[in-house]
Specification:
single chain, two-stranded antiparallel ribbon, 8-stranded mixed sheet
Amino acid sequence: MQRTVDIAPGVHLWSEARGPVGAPALLLIMGAQASGLGWPEELVDALAARHRVIRYDHRDAGRSTWSYDEHPYRVTDLADDALAVLDAHGVERAHVVGMSLGGMLAQLLLADRPDRILSATLMCTCALSEKPLIAPDGTETAAADLPAIDPRVLEMWARPVEDHGLEAELDRRVEHWRVLSGSELPFHADEMRERERRIIEHSGRYDVSLAHGRADHSGMLRTEELARNAVPTLVVEAPAEPVFPPPHPSHLQQGIGAARLVRIPGMGHALPRECLGPLADAILAHTAGA
């Protein structure tokens, strides 16, 4: 079931719900500039066996309104959008799964609106906390000194995105995901190309918005609030992650109360077929115990 969510005059979000109507709700929050269709169908179907799974397109992505220039917003406003999606689907409390920017938005929800969250699963993201990382030997590492984004990713992100037609854009997106996927698992270029083609068909356009990078990122730290968190939280460690590489997941787990860590072998900053089964199993085990 698809539903349009109005969040401001002239601004709406595309959303979809799948799974038993009476099952506990599970909200999927994708990363920056990403459509909700970035969540693979196999993963959505696996989660929908036990949950009413809701996914949506952020502002300036997919079928949602692209209007940053006319209606600028803060990144923290995107967390409010997630709550608006729940409201539109009649959901008071939900399990939340966030990836990349979506993991940051999920942390904002944990900190600011824990009354709306049954559990949280965070992956491929960094902590909104200044608490230092403490190693097993007691050594402390400041949050600012944790590993930076892989230079290959930064170089890729620095390239201008030019319009050379649909197929060239698909080529660019496939290479983007090849770098983000890391090198521990095979990269299935044809599958990724078809996933991106479906996203473009869903969106009705193949250009790329830079709105989430341009939006105001201030006011996102929640060090004390996350330390007090009591909502069951699962942190997924992706060992091949080039954007927030280990030990970022350990830092995330240490900074959030009621958090535990699970490792998905070979996973990078992407959702390849090899990771979908283990990831679904981990999320379902977590939500069942929450």
